[in-house]
Amino acid sequence: MENKTETRWSTIKEFAEWYKQNNFPIRPPSDLFVYETDVALSTVVFREGLFQVEMYFAKPNMVAIPHAHNADQITIHLGGTYEASKGWGTITMGPALIGDPKNNNENPDLPNKDFGQIGDTLMAGWWHSLSSGPRGFVFFVCQKWNTKEDMYSTFTDWVGEPLGKVHESMMNSKGWKTK
Length: 179
Description:
Radius of gyration: 16 Å
Structural class: mainly beta
CATH architecture: Sandwich
Number of strands: 7
CATH superfamily: Jelly Rolls
Shape: globular
Order of helices and strands: HEEEEEEEH
Number of domains: 1
Helix content: 10-25%
Strand content: 35-45%
CATH topology: Jelly Rolls
Distance between the termini: 19 Å
């Protein structure tokens, strides 16, 4: 596969829509790392230029306290339930419940009707918080980064209190850096 420095998207919204329309392609980068915190696991499943997608697996009944990142982001819901709030400064939007059990299909083999729902754009520096339901949740986080050197995980690009001892240890070590 050839290395490209230019990408086909200019905004995070364009990228998230392309990602969904192309059936969520999985193309992990060669420097793949599984990021672990006290409440969730993640890994990068797609990267091109300054855009990437990270897949998150959140533990049941977890809480991610208010925090921010330096990358623009949009989530794409896959399964489970979560409640999220976001804002800038003292302005709060939310909470929004995603994956509401009332939206389950009659056939339990089919996904929740919220599957593939693209969330609102969360600009770099906007704080947000979320919590999972009793089954946890899975989602993609589409990201647009400012530089290639900063592109790891939003777990490592974290502005705010760590999610616990495991997260704090990961943030303090640089063992996950492979570039």
